[in-house]
Specification:
This protein is mainly β and about 180 residues long. About 15% of the residues lie in helices and about 40% in strands. It has two helices and ten strands. It has a seven-stranded antiparallel β-sheet with strand order 1-8-5-10-4-3-2. Strands 7-6-9 form a three-stranded antiparallel β-sheet, with no helix packed on it. Strand 2 and strand 3 form a beta hairpin. It is globular and about 50 Å long.
Length: about 180
Amino acid sequence: MNLDIQIKDNFLSKELFDKLKVYSTTLDYGNDLYAADTNNNTTEHAFFSNVIDEKDNLLKQIEKEIIKHFKIGIKRVNKAAFTLANTKEACPHIDIDEFPNEKHLMIYLSGDSKLNSGTGFYSYEQFPKKRIYDLNTAIGCYPNRAVLFRSKDCIHSPLLYTGDSTSPRFAIIIWFEPEIDL
């Protein structure tokens, strides 16, 4: 298993982070769940989202931070949204890419700052009728922490199921084709 996960704490300026943290709790996340295939033809992984328009100035502000901290830009956006996750079961999955070498960025806004609201990355062993997942790496939901990974290489799941808290996790996700030659 070859995980290429990059983490940056204090990713956004304090002023922008504080605004987004409050703003994320005021949004309407609707009743529609975004669901992903968990490699066994189910859609256990789901989150509520409020889409960020591709032309929104917020994406430009975040891209400046991506360039500053990770040395890549955004060529094209697949999905950008504020998300609310409250998954109470493990749901290891791979997000579906739209672009080659697609990167996925999560910026944690609020949630249990222990591991319990973060993200787990898994390896697996395939058996004839079943796939057994093993938690390989756990990343805690530290406020203003950005996690960047190549989605097709990373089986992952929210870790909310491991905690006692009933509080959801608020985050920003941006799935994008990276611009490497800056």
